[in-house]
């Protein structure tokens, strides 16, 4: 018997987009220059290798987000304890909406996400650099 999924991805995205600020690529490109902003790239390492990365962005895979945000977690990252605005980015703007909502629900504030994701960043002329894996540095 098939599963009975009671909550669609679309409903989750609609809820996230209603609760979390969605920023345009132009606005994120400008905001990323500020000292009080952290651009959080939640793309998979394979995506970084294939498409490049945004210089200065903090990389956190989506699977570790909650663990890295929670200061009581053994995996907590100090960057998420800073008093800054966190702008989440993925490839196309879907995962980042869900990630930003999760971060907001955990108490991280302020948060936003990049509508259109990395593709929008690149298409708007945002800086991109080749990704170099840690083992090749």
SSE blueprint and pairings:
Elements: H1 9-19, E1 21-23, H2 25-31, E2 37-41, H3 45-51, E3 58-59, H4 65-69, E4 85-89, H5 95-106, E5 111-114, H6 117-123
Parallel strand pairs: 1-5, 2-3, 2-4, 4-5
Helix pairs in contact: 1-5, 2-6
Description:
The chain has helices at residues 9-19, 25-31, 45-51, 65-69, 95-106, 117-123, and strands at 21-23, 37-41, 58-59, 85-89, 111-114. It is of the alpha/beta class and 137 residues long. The chain has a five-stranded parallel β-sheet. Helix 1 crosses helix 5 and helix 2 packs across helix 6 (117-123). The protein is globular and about 45 Å long. The chain starts with 8 loop residues before the first helix and ends in a 14-residue tail after the last helix.
In short:
It contains six helices and five strands, in the order αβαβαβαβαβα.
Described by strand count, sense and barrel closure, the largest sheet is: 5 strands, parallel
- Tell me the name of the CATH class: Alpha Beta
Low-confidence stretches: none
Mean pLDDT over all positions = 95
Distance separating the two termini: 50 Å
| Spatial sequence of strands, sheet with the most strands | 1-5-4-2-3
CATH topology: Oxidized Rhodanese, domain 1
Number of separate helices: 6
Total DSSP E strands: 5
Class based on secondary structure composition and strand pairing: alpha/beta
H/E topology pattern: HEHEHEHEHEH
> What oligomeric state do these chains adopt?
single chain
Write down the Rg. 15 Å
């Amino acid at each position: 018997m098939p599963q009975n999924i009671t909550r669609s991805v679309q409903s989750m995205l609609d809820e996230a987009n209603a609760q979390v600020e969605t920023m345009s690529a132009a606005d994120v490109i400008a905001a990323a220059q500020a000292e009080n902003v952290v651009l959080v790239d939640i793309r998979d390492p394979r995506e970084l290798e294939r498409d490049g990365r945004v210089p200065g962005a903090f990389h956190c895979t989506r699977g570790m987000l909650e663990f890295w945000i929670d200061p009581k977690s053994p995996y907590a990252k100090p960057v998420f304890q800073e008093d800054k605005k966190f702008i989440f980015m993925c490839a196309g703007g879907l995962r980042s909406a869900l990630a930003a909502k999760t971060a907001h629900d955990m108490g991280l504030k302020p948060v936003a996400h990049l509508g259109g994701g990395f593709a929008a960043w690149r298409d708007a002329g945002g800086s991109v650099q080749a990704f170099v894996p840690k083992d090749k540095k």
